[in-house]
Amino acid sequence: MLVVFAHSNTGSTVATLHRGDGVVLQLPGYDRKYRVPHDLAHFATERTLEMSGGVFGSIAAGAVFSNMRVVSGRPRHDSVARSRLILDGCKQSLGLAELLAGMVHHAVETDIPDQAPVLVRKAWGSLRAGEPPWPDEVVAEATTLLSELVTDFEARGSVKVTWPDHLVAEVPQPKGVRRGRRGRT
Predict the structure, then answer these.
(1) How many domains does the chain have?
(2) What is the superkingdom listed in this entry's lineage (predicted)?
(3) Which domain covers residue 75, as residue numbers?
(4) For residue 177, what pLDDT band results from cuts at 50, 70 and 90?
(5) Which helix (H) or strand (E) holds 55?
(6) Distance (Å, rounded) from C-alpha 18 to C-alpha 163?
(7) pTM here?
């Protein structure tokens, strides 16, 4: 999935997402007071930490958040139900992605990228016991990627990135729907 982050006419950021199914969506940002676009932090964090159930993996699978709009393409006939299934199925991972992206965002925004691993460990500890599944070096890679993307974004006013195909959220089966052949009597 191709993602283009650019400045919007509101002074914030807008991400235009070109999904593999031909649908093009826009995701507005609410980050006018920050130098680092929040959704760009989600991208860098989720991609580096291999989070398929975060914001971008969910969108790639067919989820559409309430603040998004379809720009072009034809959504599936069951797109609303599919989106709801994906968002319900990814509820916990979306919450985790929000928390971790917030830590990486804060580290880059406040120019303390070396503190990101500590921030992520503390955030993880607020949700779960034990160490996070990502070594400090991987968390540091997320801050490095975000810093590089922000540098490009500031220099050009936009940045194009690709969401990997292997990081697409699974679409849960609808409850109460049987699959397969009916028995004959």
Answers:
(1) 1
(2) Bacteria
(3) 2-166
(4) low
(5) helix 55-61
(6) 10
(7) 0.91
